[in-house]
Design brief:
- It contains four helices and four strands, in the order βαβααββα.
- By secondary structure, it is α/β, with parallel strands linked by helices.
- The radius of gyration is 14 Å and the shape is globular.
């Protein structure tokens, strides 16, 4: 998903960081859905505590099915700076590896791990992530 360079953060613009272990599945899907739904109204980041070498091909395929191309995405390592720069941090199975800072909103989404799964197993995970991101968007964006 070759998203344009995000606009600079403003006091009126929320920033969200999605974190999973490999940054190759769940967090990539969540970031892509949020970017797709909110555009540059929300600054979106994703990272992993132990990033994989590439995004899971079944995840790429499942996202293509809903019209979102994440084939150009690359897993990124979780940094303290990324957490500090985010208003909302959503973890997905990375345990206690995410640093905690006061004043941030932390959510933990329990989701099945798509690692090693085929596209048939990834679809329900993708659909659940989309529903959660849609709910998140309604809380982040002004009515």
């Amino acid at each position: 998903m070759n998203a344009p360079t995000p606009a600079p953060a403003t006091p009126n613009r929320s920033s969200v960081l999605f974190v999973c272990v490999h940054n190759a599945g769940r967090s990539q899907m969540a970031a892509a859905f949020l970017t797709h739904l909110a555009g540059d109204l929300v600054e979106v980041r994703s990272a992993g505590s132990a990033p994989a070498g590439s995004v899971n091909p079944a995840v790429v395929e499942a996202m293509k099915e809903v019209g979102i191309d994440i084939s150009a995405e690359i897993p990124k390592v979780l940094t303290t700076d990324a957490v500090q720069a985010s208003d909302v941090v959503i973890t997905m199975g990375c345990g206690d590896t995410c640093p905690v800072f006061p004043g941030k909103t932390y959510l933990d989404w329990e989701l099945a791990d798509p690692a090693g799964q085929g596209v048939d197993a990834v679809r329900p995970i993708r659909d659940e992530i989309e529903q959660r991101v849609r709910s998140l968007v309604s809380g982040l964006l002004p009515a």
